[in-house]
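Encode chain A's predicted structure.
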Amino acid sequence: MKPFSYERATDAASAARTLAERPEARIIAGGTNLLDLMKLEIETPGHLVDIQDIGLDRIEPTDEGGLRIGALVSNTELASDDRVRRDYGVLARAIVAGASGQLRNKATTAGNLLQRTRCPYFYDTNMPCNKRRPGSGCAAIGGYSRQLAVVGSSEHCIATYPGDMAIALRVLDAQVETVRADGSARSIPFGDFHRLPGDEPQRDNVLERGEIITAVTLPRPVGGTHIYHKVRDRASYAFALVSVAAVIQPDGTGAVAFGGVAHKPWRVEAAEAALPQGARAVTAQVFADARPTDENRFKIPLAERALAAVIDQARG
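Encoded structure for chain A:
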């Protein structure tokens, strides 16, 4: 790990200003992903801005009947909140499906959304990776790709977004609240927050330099049956091959998003009209533009079967 300087921020706006003024600076809170990247010298910040003391650690009701989740709320606290368990069960289930208990105790809401891909070539500094070093190439294309994307990829990157929590937030129509270096705030629809790789795979999301997440807001509860179904290579502590987050209403309508298949939580709202017709009708539209490799082609029928299991569970 390379040497770096360190400071503790006192509020979100000052942290954003430091981030904007110092290109070598990075924000740190739980550190569950950043520290790993620093040890491997994939990330080499010259300065760390610790935001653990700036508040943003509460879950509060909104005037619209939803919840505002502070950026620093831990994954454990969020998954165990009575309001989340009662009204947004898909979110609690997704969080519990990810990582270990120790990691969930430290990992934060914002940090979970900002975690980097787990593509093996991103973590191997001896290999080319356009996400780690733009312009160096993508070793995953033509390489080992079993875990990687089947849809939304580009000729520059076929990595997947690794998180579970974000798949549930996508299906819940969450919003990401931020503050910029000039103190202005904005709210980003969750579907617009993560980016597809295109020709800039090094950019995972739409945050501007000097912009930090302050909260995630959930709309008023919509009822229904909340299910998170994760398919992985071993029973615990593994990233998803395919995951499904769903809110299914009693009449069979609902919302569904997929994880483990793309650079971002993958939801095609137009396909949800086919939910009463079954999983095959939905996934035919969701993966209509898929470009799998020979090694991960299995993910498409796996996604169909995972959704079929979710629909059966919702029907009781």
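The mean pLDDT is 96.
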